[in-house]
Design brief:
single chain; mainly beta; nine-stranded mixed β-sheet; 6 helices
């Protein structure tokens, strides 16, 4: 559960008391505003609001415990590899301040000592969107059972090409929405051609074995625009970067719903903010994946690898490892044409409840011929507290009790470049 950290253990030690009294408004509120309130406010993923003293005070000890154990803020990258703009980490000074406040009575202080409230845009983490595309009707989620992925086509109505600098997928009901992936379907595409706009659609099953050699999550659409999973933030690219949505394109929402014992409904939406001018770089999403693995019953440390070689120069923008409940760790390594290599991201404790993007502080140039290698480990043993059933053999599949191994990443290229040329060998090179 996303709020496991709320369980309060032993009382905070008196040694955390400060010589100068630590108060909410002067010392704690600035930290909460910078690191916590984006999630911990009404309508967001945090299970409680931390906007005011009255809201935060009952959770003081839990906050102290969470930051001392580094369960909060959620961030899983090994600090020895890569630097990321969205790193959710607190300085030692911030941790000490929160712990001291919690351990010394959680004093309020004077409101005049604190910063002004942040003017959040209600309902959005990205700020106010330029365009909102919403499911025209709510989807009914039953109380029990397994729900196949639902695909919903949303026509954009764009009469000209649009460069998207920010995007956010917002579930209408987080309790039953495991993930949303918004794909771009360009005009003339045959992808999901039998689906009617706005009507939930389930593709016909492929012949047995055929689907295993096909990346269902890539869908056959032109590009992945934005996604939602627990803990994922809005897509906010650097100045000069944007994703392309061509005139006349549709968005295809891949909706993964899970039942929780109660009937529910969901009506999700996508918010888009456009670049103010033609970008210097086009960003697109790709992945290295492996769907051929088998995890034996009780296996504590199965290694699965995947790789992809770039056919053109590109800049690496971000990374997002994806596994399910048996996911244990995930590592990205870059192998350059010279033979040199470096680890760019190591996630030693993968947490299914927090599917995070890791945005590089400085996009990294990957010369043609660079190989992106991904290595993951899976724990199907009884020692994995999230394991649905350690007695079964596990293979690739869309449901949470099955598994996936996808090393998502995003690349930046010249605005006029074709992303397919970066990822696929040209025919003359394979003849």
């Amino acid at each position: 559960m996303l709020y496991r950290w709320l369980a309060v253990g032993a009382a905070l030690a008196p040694a955390w008391a400060a010589t100068t009294p630590v108060t909410f408004h002067k010392d704690v509120l600035p930290i909460l505003q910078k690191h916590c309130q984006n999630c911990h406010r009404p309508g967001e993923v945090g299970p409680m609001s931390l906007l005011t003293y009255m809201e935060a005070r009952p959770w003081a000890k839990a906050i102290g415990e969470a930051v001392l154990s580094k369960k909060m803020p959620p961030w899983f990258a090994d600090p020895h590899f890569g630097k990321f703009t969205n790193a959710r980490t607190l300085s030692k000074s911030d941790i000490d301040t929160l712990a001291a406040w919690a351990g010394s009575g959680a004093a309020e202080g004077h409101s005049s000592d604190g910063p002004a409230p942040i003017a959040f845009v209600e309902g959005w983490g990205m700020g106010k969107p330029d365009v909102v595309l919403e499911m025209p009707q709510a989807f009914d989620v039953p109380a029990t059972g397994t729900i196949e992925y639902q695909y919903i086509v949303l026509p954009t109505g764009f009469t000209e090409d649009k460069w998207v600098a920010q995007a956010e997928a917002r579930p209408g009901n987080r309790a039953v929405t495991h993930h949303i992936i918004a794909f771009v379907r360009e005009p003339g595409s045959n992808y999901l051609r039998d689906a009617k706009p706005g009507v939930p659609f389930v593709p016909k099953p492929r012949p047995k074995g055929e689907g295993e050699s096909r990346n269902e999550d890539a869908g056959g659409a032109s590009d992945l625009l934005v996604g939602y999973a627990p803990g994922m933030e809005a897509m906010m690219l650097k100045p000069g970067q944007a994703k392309l949505v061509k005139a006349g394109s549709d968005l295809v929402l891949q909706m993964h719903y899970t039942t929780n014992g109660k009937p529910a409904t969901d009506r999700s939406r996508i918010g888009l903010a456009f670049a103010k001018e033609t970008p210097r770089q086009r960003v697109f999403t790709a992945n290295a994946m492996n769907n051929k693995f088998v995890i034996p019953p009780g296996e504590p440390n199965l290694e699965v690898t995947a790789q992809i070689t770039l056919q053109e120069d590109a800049h690496l923008v971000d990374l997002m490892p994806h596994m399910h409940l048996r996911g244990k760790d995930f590592l990205y390594r870059l192998v350059y044409p010279t033979g040199e290599s470096e680890t760019i991201l190591n996630v030693p404790r993968f947490d299914f409840n927090w599917q995070l993007f890791y945005y590089l502080e400085t996009p990294k140039l990957l010369p043609k011929g660079t190989r992106i290698e991904c290595t993951a480990h899976f724990d199907n043993s009884a020692n994995n507290p999230g394991n649905p059933d350690p007695k079964v053999e596990v293979r690739w599949g869309p449901q949470s009790w099955e598994e996936m191994m996808i090393g998502w990443f995003e690349l930046a290229v010249d605005p006029g470049a074709n992303p397919k040329d970066v990822l696929r060998k040209k025919k003359k090179e394979t003849d």
